[in-house]
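Q: Hi! First time doing this. I have a protein sequence and I read that you can turn it into a structure. Is that right? Here it is:
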Amino acid sequence: MRFTSKDSWVTQAAVYGLFAGAVSPLVHRGLPDSPTRSYAPGEVTCPKGITNFLRTADSVSPDEAAWLKKRAPVTRKAFQEYLKRAKLKDFDVDAFFNANQDWAPKFGLAFSGGGYRAMLNGGGVLKAFDERTTDAKKHVGGILQSATYIAGLSGGSWAIGSVVVNNFTKIEDIQKRDDVWDLETSILAPEGRLAILDSISYYRDLRDEVMSKKEAGYVVTLTDYWGRAIARQILISPKDTGAPATTFSSIADTKEFKDAIMPFPIVVADARNPDETIISSNSTVFEINPLEMGSFDPTLYKFTRTKYVGTSFTDGKVDNATCMAGFDNAGFVLGTSSSLFNAGLLQLNSTGIDGTLRDLAFTILSGLSDSSSDIAAWSPNPFFSTSPLPSQPLTSDRNLTLVDGGMDLQNIPLNPLIQPVRALDTIIAADASADTSNWPNGTALYATYERSVMPQQNGTAFPEIPTVNSFVNLGLNTRPTFFGCAWNESLPQGTAQPSLIVYIPNSPYTFMSNFSTFDRKYTTEDRDAIIDNGYQVATKGEDEEWPACLACAIMHRHWQREGGQTEQCKQCMTEYCWDGKRNDTVPSEPYEPTTTKADAKKSVGFRSGVSLVGVVVGAGLSLLAVM
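A: Yes, that's right. Below is the predicted 3D structure, encoded as C-alpha cells:
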C-alpha cells in the first residue's frame, strides 16, 4: 500500500508515536516530515515551477549558494573571537577584520569511518571544537562554529549525524542522556532478564518499519534494517524509536540550518553494482546533503534534490506526474554510508548461538548473497536515463546501489570538500581508521591522493601524500600534520590550488582507543574515555600553542594570496607542515603506540569482533522468521 499526505494527522501521529512522551529540551531531533509520518515514503505535491529535477555538477546549487551567504558572517564572527582567544603574536585581530571586510574563513571538517571507534573519537574531536563545551574555549573551542562544511563517512557519519539531525546538539549533552549513545547493550541483541522477549519486540519493530517501505512499493535491503537499528542509538525520538519519520532533508527546515548556525552537513557513500569491486580509481563518490544528492565524478556529474528521491524520474523529469517524499530517512542515509556492517549479517558461526537460532537465521537470510549484502537500494534511480550519459552503468538501470563510503579505501570524506566549486582553503581531517592494529597509518589520505592524478578525480587537485610506510616511519600517524602547505606553481592553468589538509590521526593521548571497528558494545566508562581521548587528539594534548597554529593553518591560503603572514605562523608551518621527506622501507616492527600522558587509562586495546557481529545480528534477525 501507499500512504499519502492526505491521511489523517491522528493516524500519522499514531504511527509515529508523537504522543508517547516529551523530548528533553537539551537535545531534540530534526523534523518528522515524512508524509506518512512513518518509515515509508508517501505521495506529495510536486513543487511548482520545476520541470527537471537534475542539474549539472559544475557549481553548488542555488540553495547552497544562498545558504553560504548566510553562513559567511556567522563564521567570520566566530573565527574573529577564536583568534582573540588563540592570542596570535604580533597580530591585531580587529584591525585585520576591519581591513578585510569581505573575508571569512572557509574550511571544512571531515570525520573518517571506523565504526563506534570513529563515532566516539569523532565525538571527542567535535566536543573539543565546539565552543559550547565546558572549558573548550581554553583550547580549540570555536572551530566548529567557524567551519563552513562538516562531512562524515560511515562511523564518522554517526558522529556528525548525532549532532546535526538532533538539531545541532552538543556532544557534552549527548553523553548525559541515556537514550542515545547507550552502547552498554548491543545494537542488535537487547540484553537483560527478559532478553529474548526484548529481542522479539525489538526486531518486530524493525521488521514492521522496513516492511512498510516494501509495501509502499520500494526495494528494501539489509541496509534498511541496519539503518533503523543505528537510528535507535543516535537519533532522539519518543519511545526510542529511532525517529522513523525524520528525513535527512528535514535538516534544511530546522532553525539551526536556516539561520546557518551549524556547518553544512554532508554524508558520503560510494556507488557499487552487485559483484563489482571498487577501489579509489574506479569508484563514484556520492554525497548526500540536506539539499541535494549526487556526485561530482565524471561518471555521473549530476545532482538531484534529496527531498524528492524516491520519485520515479526519467532524465530528471517526473514519471506519471507523481512526486514522492520520505525516502531519505535519516537513519537510512546514515546506514547507507555505513553499510559495511551489513556483511556481518552473513558471517554466522555457531559460537554463542544454538543450532535452532542459527538455522532460523540462515532461513531468513537464504535469499541474500555475500555480493549484495553491503548494498543500499536507492530505487527508483533518480538519475535514470540521464542526458548526456544514458548508457553509463549509473544511469542505465532503474536501480541505484550505494555502499559504505570507505569501501574504496577513501575512508575520510574528503571528496565533497576538495571540489573547486566549494573553494575551501583548509580541511581538518580527523582519521580514526583501522589500518594497523586499529590505528590509522595514512591509507585513507593516500587513496585520495592516488585518485587525484586519475581521470575519475575530474582534474581536482590534492596535496602530495607520502606512502603508508613513510607515514609510520616518520611518525605522521601520531601527531597533527599539515599537507599541501606550499603554493603549487606547476598546476595546469585554470586548476585551483588544493585545500591545505590538517591531518589529525587518532592516537593514544590518554586512552588506548584502538577498539575494533566491529566491536558492538562499550561500557560507558570506555565510551567516555574514547571521547575524552578524542578531545585530547583535537587539542594536541591541550597544547597551549596548538590553537594558534591551527588558526595559522586556516589562514594560510589567504596569506599566500595576500601576504602578511606573521612570524609565529611561519614557525607553526615549519613545525607542522610535511617537509617532503620519505622513508618507504617496510617498518621492522608492528605499530604499537603507548599513551603519551602518565595518567592514561588502559583498555583491552586491539580486539577482533567480525564474527561476533554476525552471531548477534543473525540471532536477532532470525527471530523475524517466526513472527
